[in-house]
Amino acid sequence: MSTRNCFTGPADHMISCVMAKMDASRYEVTYTPDCVGEFQIDISHDNIPVDDSNPYVARAFDVNKVKICDFPSTIMVDTPAYFIIDATDSGSGNLEIAVSIDDKNIPNYVQNEGGARFRVKFIPDQAGSYFVHIKFNGVDLYGSPFTCNVLSSDFTFENYEYAPINKRSLLLIKPKSNSKFNPNLHIDIVSPSGNCIQGKIEEKSANIYAIQYTPNEIGDHHIMFYTDNDKKCMITKFICQVYDATKIRISDLPAAIP
């Protein structure tokens, strides 16, 4: 009597395995996946499949292929922080995300951007160092936990998360108390293709300022504030998602019932 194991990779290629007898009725089989994807495992005894579940499926993953993009190193308190997790090439699995400060977790929100790309958002409610722990299939990503330094601010920023294409948009800056805003800050507004859009700071009323700009591309626009024109120190960054409502299509509506 003999037991045979066959391991087939995602590209229909065979990989080797080692089978060792543990006792009279148990065997241990070890193998090393050589790529990301599904491996089919055929197990037979005297050329007869062991059960109806044959072949078994093992899903190989590579945590080192998970990419973290646009992670904010410094932001302002009470303003949303965004970053991207790209698990396109890492294989199947589950992501675990935890954002904490002083051992206290705060909520985070995940938006699927298609495929295996995810946008993560969290809003820090106090100044300090926030730690973002990310795991893939229970394994820590390289560099996790990631650190985001949150600075206190006497201002709130409004009307920046969404904007229509080819129309003038306003980002409002309002003081929380008697704070004075420095209108000489340098601002970069960068489109998805990397083009810079002219943004202008204007005082709308007493100590309330607005940034005017007109986006001409659909997608994420990065709005970055620097202390001066040298751009050595970024104060905060926002992401504005620009949309085009004219491209929405409605089809196959059922006929109205009188």
What's the helix and strand layout?
Blueprint: E1 3-8, E2 14-15, E3 17-21, E4 27-31, E5 37-45, E6 48-49, E7 56-60, E8 67-69, E9 74-76, E10 81-86, E11 95-101, E12 104-106, E13 108-112, E14 117-122, E15 128-136, E16 139-140, E17 146-151, E18 155-158, E19 162-164, E20 169-175, E21 186-190, E22 196-197, E23 200-205, E24 208-213, E25 219-226, E26 234-243
Parallel strand pairs: 9-17, 19-26
Antiparallel strand pairs: 1-2, 1-5, 3-4, 5-6, 5-7, 8-10, 10-14, 11-12, 11-15, 13-14, 15-16, 15-17, 18-20, 20-24, 21-22, 21-25, 23-24, 25-26
Keywords: Repeat
GO molecular function, one term: actin filament binding
Protein name: Filamin
Brief digest:
The chain is 0% helix and 52% strand. The chain is mainly β.
Protein described:
Keywords: Repeat. Belongs to the filamin family. It comes from Rotaria socialis. The chain has 258 residues and is an all-beta fold. The protein folds into three domains: 58 residues, Immunoglobulins (Immunoglobulin-like); 91 residues, Immunoglobulins (Immunoglobulin-like), CATH 2.60.40.10; 93 residues, Immunoglobulins (Immunoglobulin-like, Sandwich), CATH 2.60.40.10. It starts with a strand and ends in a 15-residue tail after the last strand.
